[in-house]
Amino acid sequence: MQIAIPLYERFTALDAVGPYEVLSRLPGAEVIFVAAQRGPVRTDTKMLAMTADATFDEVRAPDVLMLPGGFGTRPLLTDEAMLDWVRGAHEASEWTTSVCTGSLLLAAAGLLDGLEATTHWAAAGELEALGARYVERRVVEQGRIVTGAGVSAGIDMALTLAARIAGDDIAQAIQLYMEYDPQPPFDSGSPAKAPESVLAIAPSAARGRG
Amino acid sequence: MQIAIPLYERFTALDAVGPYEVLSRLPGAEVIFVAAQRGPVRTDTKMLAMTADATFDEVRAPDVLMLPGGFGTRPLLTDEAMLDWVRGAHEASEWTTSVCTGSLLLAAAGLLDGLEATTHWAAAGELEALGARYVERRVVEQGRIVTGAGVSAGIDMALTLAARIAGDDIAQAIQLYMEYDPQPPFDSGSPAKAPESVLAIAPSAARGRG
After folding, report:
1. Interface test with A, best of B3, B175, B204 (most A CBs within 10 A)
2. What is the pTM of this model?
């Protein structure tokens, strides 16, 4: 089972690595990172580069497509070559998925027209403007399209997907191996939960992301 | 504030990327990935490479040291050059931290003698054999040494550390930005919680990790 994760300049690392860490442990899985060119691709912070091991041309029909987010998605929303690749991959795929603003790419490719989907909370308006119906949930399933909310939600999205693909026991075994028994020191992971003082400074935590 | 994250062949990606995603958003933070040589370093699955942008020689006195885990830690437990580097970095650092089996390196370097620490649940015995006192907690603080449990626990560890470094409001703003409002589809993230059927197949989910 080939799982393709595209990398674009200014992607958000955890958007890609959360699902990679889950999905790479599925029996028979091969995760392949793809980009316009092979080689290192810088994240939104510029402090990290991850390697694309294949080009878009080389991976046209993955079994699973997983689009990460980050500000790097924005220039691609009008990049017809990229959107054509997404449409082609979706035609071939069993599952088409995204994390964070990766869903904007699905929407721009016309794959979310009138469908429910999620994205980073700060990008809900952008998603709706592209024709999807934003739902304030962490994971949204619409047939074989599964979207996850912001950044860390990719772990929950991928575990949900792992269960669909390989059954609950294997998904839970992966969760156990990753020791995903979350105990955040604070409860401020959504705008509904964060205190006013935190909402006021949230934009400064973005540091060029989104 | 320089935050050094060493990469070694067969590290676990999420161990490194969870804390990177949190700590890179601290005001004034510069996260630098370091290795024996500059260039790509492969993870435990071989399906992903991340770039080391500096060598150990070039980064000897980081403000924060953050050691990821993975099976790649094991050969290093008797690598005196590596352990010397860890000891030197710890002498200079304000905070010395680890995720998963990264704490085995701290212990092998003699930095956890008699101290409480945590690691991946499957490595508790190894940690104790190296002189630390294993504690079954997600984040363990002992002065300026902070250890996290397996893989995904690095996010909780790093948010805890972010609060110590920059205060609760900034840590919470980072949590909000990462939308870290975890909602795992299952509750099997620790051996105490996972059902028997899942414990039985957990080793197969490791696929060369640890």
Report:
1. B175
2. 0.96
Q: Quickly state the pLDDT bin for A22 (edges 50, 70, 90).
A: very high
**Cα-only R_g, chain B:** 16
Q: What is the DSSP letter of A123?
A: G
* Residue ranges in chain A assigned as alpha helix (H): 13-23, 80-92, 102-108, 124-129, 153-166, 168-177, 196-206
Rounded CA separation B153/B205 (Å) = 17
CATH number at residue B149: 3.40.50.880
Collapse the DSSP code of B67 into the 3-class scheme (helix H, G, I; strand E, B; otherwise coil) and give the result. Answer: strand
Q: C-alpha angle with apex A120: A116 to A121, nearest 5 degrees?
A: 85
A173 to B205: CB separation less than 8 angstroms, yes or no:
yes
Q: Is A100 a catalytic residue?
A: yes
**Residue of A149, A174, A171, A43 lying closest to A99 (CA atoms):** A149
Q: Is residue B201 part of a domain?
A: no
Domain assignment of residue B139, yes or no: yes
pLDDT value of residue A207? 54
Q: Which residues of B touch A156 (CB under 8 A)?
A: 182-185
Answer whether A176 sits within 8 Å of B198, measured CB to CB: yes
Q: What are the tens digits of pLDDT across the range A83-96?
A: 999 999 999 999 99
CA distance B25 to chain A (A): 6
Maximum Cα–Cα distance across chain B: 48
A50/B50 CB distance under 8 A: yes
Run of H or E residues at B102: helix B102-108
Give residue A83's domain range: 2-206
Domain assignment present for B200: no
What is the ipTM metric for this complex? 0.95
Q: What is the pLDDT of residues A35-62, one digit of tens each?
A: 999 999 999 999 999 999 999 999 999 9
